[in-house]
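Need residues for this backbone.
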């Protein structure tokens, strides 16, 4: 099969922006699109190899998976193995649990699903996850599992082969666009919304395989040169002008995908861009790009765990270290394994052993709660509340979403409408005796959408990026929600109240009480300031009970507005209940030395218990218990 140097050069164009993006270079704010370039290249190369072997009658599924194992696993195993001791010494238990889960998910080719379940690629915590970048490998691995079989079965059925590919691409792209609006994380991480990107590469390979492109004439050379330069610009533009706030992938992914397709299709050793991409330095970076991609994220992540604010000089050194390690792992790990130095039996045997080994190590880490027992009893109280804290917040609320009330139970029926702060409220109920008196059903309206029941159109206040999802998810217009409100004894509203929403709450409450004849209770917002679990360990043990943080000014502003606007309403001041008498700062620990929040906004289990106890002690909610 013909070797194209410019493709390796294109790999360099993909990997360098990704690394610089993860390193925090603002100039490369859209460097994450390098992964999309890789997807197209992978789809192209894999399809080209399979079609070539099918034509010669030499294609074998076993051979294909053997080559994939030789290509992917040795360097990946090396990086995972090196990460383990650094994770042991640098990660707190909650992070070590997450790291351990990532080892398991990588071992079953599902790390994209795992990191999707942890919600987000662009969040602040993402940069602290050593192996989050393996999500893209999982997408490719999942593609490798089914696409060769698809080609083997349909490649010779020319009547339906191309239409099937087009349908698959169209469906995947449509899902990608829709889910980017509704749930961006899902569109970002999962195969069914990334499949079209790989298929674009595959379709380019099929077209080039079946129809050799004319490159010798002057007109063909001119067209090719223009097309490849356009493709180059389509990649460069998002690298420099996209950012974490870009609605991505969706329509925004078209630019790097089409740009890569144009370059692969039109570039050659004789074209302008082809010659540039074939420069030795670009080809060399392309050759070690896989290892460079593997190494850079753990290096950057562990450095930030060790030192929160990493100096710029160290960032440059870490980037250099990524490429140095990439060279050595390419030279002494990738190359020997890709060549026939090891038999097929040995490749599959070592692959199986490696996968089982890392899954076992990960399971041990999870089962031991990140080895929490390494810490003192006082510190363990802090750390144990942070383990799986995000799952704790969401679980009960999500299980009770639009849950039907049981008419045979003589318990007050409460519909709780809100966002993640509403989830905190549900946990407070179930961590207290309130749960003995109430039936709970829940419904989620995200804070950015506005938890409001109004006649006026307030969508102009919603962030345009978030608006499409709000429109799809809806507000109070769902039939099931309306039915539950009518069946309920009271409506409880709990959200991360934005100022523009808080301004309109009195009218919203009046409308709800007028239309449904139910009492409405509004639960205020809360804020614990900036919380870093690692820094909480530095607070002297004898000072933790009285330790407080300044409440964020924006939260104080909303709280004061609600206290003024909701006089005479059923308003429960959550901040006053959990933060103490001050309106400017908030206590962080309970009397036992456990943190009330793990992120400055959401409750730990200890925080939920404290709120539940406080709710039982105040007058208004207990009206519902009479």
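Answer:
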């Amino acid at each position: 099969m013909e070797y194209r140097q410019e493709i390796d050069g294109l790999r360099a164009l993909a990997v360098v922006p990704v690394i610089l993006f993860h390193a925090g270079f603002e100039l490369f704010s859209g460097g994450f699109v390098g992964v999309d370039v890789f997807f197209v290249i992978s789809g192209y190369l894999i399809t080209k190899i399979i079609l070539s072997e099918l034509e010669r009658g030499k294609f074998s599924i076993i051979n294909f998976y053997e080559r994939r194992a030789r290509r992917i696993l040795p360097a990946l195993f090396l990086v995972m193995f090196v990460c383990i001791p650094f994770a042991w010494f640098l990660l707190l238990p909650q992070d070590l649990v997450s790291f351990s889960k990532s080892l398991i998910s990588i071992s079953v080719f599902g790390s994209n699903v795992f990191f999707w379940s942890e919600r987000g690629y662009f969040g602040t915590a993402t940069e602290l996850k050593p192996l989050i970048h393996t999500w893209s490998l999982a997408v490719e691995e999942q593609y490798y599992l089914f696409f060769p079989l698809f080609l083997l079965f349909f490649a010779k059925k020319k009547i339906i082969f191309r239409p099937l590919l087009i349908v698959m691409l169209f469906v995947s792209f449509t899902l990608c666009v829709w889910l980017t609006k509704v749930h961006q994380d899902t569109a970002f991480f999962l195969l069914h919304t990334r499949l079209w990107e790989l298929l674009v590469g595959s379709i380019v390979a099929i077209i080039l395989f079946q129809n050799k492109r004319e490159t010798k004439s002057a007109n063909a050379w001119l067209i090719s040169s223009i097309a490849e330069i356009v493709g180059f610009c389509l990649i460069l533009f998002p690298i420099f002008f996209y950012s974490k706030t870009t609605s991505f992938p969706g329509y925004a992914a078209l630019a790097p995908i089409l740009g890569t397709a144009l370059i692969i299709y039109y570039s050659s050793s004789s074209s302008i861009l082809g010659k540039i991409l074939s420069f030795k330095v670009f080809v060399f970076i392309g050759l070690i790009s896989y290892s460079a991609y593997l190494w850079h994220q753990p290096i950057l992540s562990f450095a930030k765990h060790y030192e929160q604010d990493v100096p710029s000089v160290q960032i440059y050194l870490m980037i250099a270290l990524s490429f140095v390690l990439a060279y050595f792992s390419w030279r002494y790990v990738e190359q020997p394994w890709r060549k026939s130095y090891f038999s097929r039996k040995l490749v599959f045997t070592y692959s199986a052993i490696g996968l089982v080994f890392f899954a076992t190590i990960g399971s041990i880490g999870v089962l031991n709660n990140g080895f929490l027992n390494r810490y003192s009893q006082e510190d363990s109280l802090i750390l144990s509340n942070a383990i799986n804290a995000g799952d704790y917040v969401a679980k009960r609320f999500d299980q009770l979403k639009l849950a039907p009330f049981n008419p045979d139970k003589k318990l007050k029926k409460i519909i709780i409408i809100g966002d993640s702060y509403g989830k905190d409220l549900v946990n407070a109920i179930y961590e207290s005796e309130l749960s003995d008196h109430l039936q709970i059903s829940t419904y989620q309206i995200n804070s950015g959408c506005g938890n409001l029941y109004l006649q006026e159109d307030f969508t102009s206040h919603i962030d345009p990026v978030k608006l499409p999802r709000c429109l799809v998810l809806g507000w109070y217009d769902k039939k099931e929600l309306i039915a539950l409100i009518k069946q309920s004894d009271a409506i409880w509203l709990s959200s991360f109240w934005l100022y523009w929403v808080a301004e309109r709450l009195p009218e919203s409450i009046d409308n709800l009480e007028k239309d449904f004849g139910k009492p409405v209770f509004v639960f205020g917002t809360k804020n614990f300031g900036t919380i870093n679990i690692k820094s909480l360990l530095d607070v002297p043990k004898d000072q933790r009970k009285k330790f407080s943080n300044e409440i964020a000014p924006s939260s104080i502003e909303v709280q004061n507005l609600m206290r003024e606007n909701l006089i005479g309403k059923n308003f429960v001041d959550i901040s006053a209940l959990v933060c103490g008498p001050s309106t400017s700062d908030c206590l962080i620990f309970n009397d036992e030395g456990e943190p009330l929040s793990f992120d400055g906004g959401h409750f730990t289990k200890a925080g939920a218990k404290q709120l539940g106890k406080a709710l039982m002690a105040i007058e208004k909610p207990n009206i519902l218990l009479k």
